């Protein structure tokens, strides 16, 4: 039971985590318990290792790790529902809640609990998430296990909690930003003559290739750009036109605007 994992309020991110844990083989020797008021979207995930239920208390009682996948506005109601079965000796709390600090969770749950904040992204479903993690002192003995969990789903990074808002923007919202860039590249490809399906396939693979180069070679983006640009060539002409229309500044402004919004949510 202590190794079982409950995901309470299993929305899009919770479902992505469940799919990733199943795909990675992480739950071969444990159970995953998923809760949601409407179980219809969870039924395709149900198997001998993944159980679904509307009963949050039942899920918590059967688990050692409790992942909070709800919206912040739902936190108080959920905690009121499960407070009688929460046990600091049994449960490690992993919060996915945006803008809810560990200090606030300690006030609501109890200062004796091991509490961890994690900010993954939906690429967790295909084992390619970047997950940023912060934790309180009671979670120090658990952090290696929790890091191992998220490492099965991509990569993880321990950060100071003060950076969690920025991590939400760059890591979680970043998926949407990159999707929009790929979509724009696809549209450009269609304008240049490709059909939409081929254009998207090329755009996705080019994006994957660019990211893989940086990840594997650990080089700076500009050094890889230099290898593609030639004097008076088409690449530099395109880059300069994009920058003329504010590509980099628009992206940075988008990130800072998202950051401002998330801080307003606190």
Overview features:
266 residues; alpha/beta
Per-chain topology:
Layout: E1 5-8, H1 12-24, E2 32-35, E3 50-53, H2 56-61, E4 65-68, H3 75-82, E5 92-95, H4 102-109, E6 114-119, E7 129-135, H5 143-151, E8 154-158, H6 164-191, H7 196-217, H8 221-228, H9 234-244, H10 247-264
Parallel strand pairs: 1-2, 1-4, 2-3, 4-5, 5-6, 7-8
Antiparallel strand pairs: 6-7
Helix pairs in contact: 6-7, 6-10
- Helical amount among residues, as a percent range? 40-55%
Largest sheet: 8 strands, mixed
Supply Rg.
21 Å
Strand order in the largest sheet: 3-2-1-4-5-6-7-8
Secondary-structure element order, as H and E?
Answer: EHEEHEHEHEEHEHHHHH
Number of strands: 8
- What is the average of the pLDDT values? 95
Distance between the termini: 34 Å
How is this structure best summarized?
The chain is an alpha/beta fold and 266 residues long. It contains 10 helices and 8 strands.
Describe this structure in words.
This protein starts with a strand and ends with a helix. The protein has an 8-stranded mixed beta sheet, sandwiched between helices. Helix 1 links the parallel strand 1 and strand 2. The protein is of the alpha/beta class. The protein has 10 helices and 8 strands. Helix 6 packs across helix 7 and helix 6 packs antiparallel against helix 10. The mean pLDDT is 95.
């Amino acid at each position: 039971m202590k190794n079982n994992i409950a995901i309470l309020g299993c929305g899009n991110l919770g479902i992505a985590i469940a799919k990733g844990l199943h795909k990675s083989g992480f739950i071969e020797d444990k159970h995953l318990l998923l809760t949601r008021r409407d179980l219809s979207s969870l039924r395709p995930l149900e198997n001998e290792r993944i159980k679904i239920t509307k009963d949050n208390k039942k899920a918590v009682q059967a688990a050692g790790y409790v992942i909070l996948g709800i919206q912040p506005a739902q936190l108080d109601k959920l905690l009121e529902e499960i407070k009688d079965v929460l046990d600091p000796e049994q449960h490690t709390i992993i919060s996915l809640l945006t803008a809810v600090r560990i200090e606030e969770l300690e006030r609501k749950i109890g200062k004796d609990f091991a509490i961890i904040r994690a900010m993954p992204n939906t690429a967790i479903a295909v084992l390619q998430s970047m997950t940023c993690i912060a934790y309180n002192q009671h979670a120090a003995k658990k952090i290696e296990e929790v890091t191992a969990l998220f490492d099965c789903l991509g990569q993880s990074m321990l950060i100071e909690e003060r950076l969690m808002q920025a991590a939400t923007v760059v890591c979680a919202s970043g998926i949407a930003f990159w999707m929009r860039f790929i979509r724009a590249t696809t549209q450009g490809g269609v304008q240049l003559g490709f059909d939409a399906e081929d254009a998207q396939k090329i755009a996705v693979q080019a994006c994957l290739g660019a990211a893989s180069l940086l990840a594997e070679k650990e080089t700076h983006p500009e050094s890889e750009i230099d290898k593609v640009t030639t004097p008076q060539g088409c690449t530099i002409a395109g880059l300069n036109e994009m920058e003329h229309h504010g590509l980099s500044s628009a992206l940075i402004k988008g990130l800072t605007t998202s950051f401002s919004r998330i801080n307003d949510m606190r």
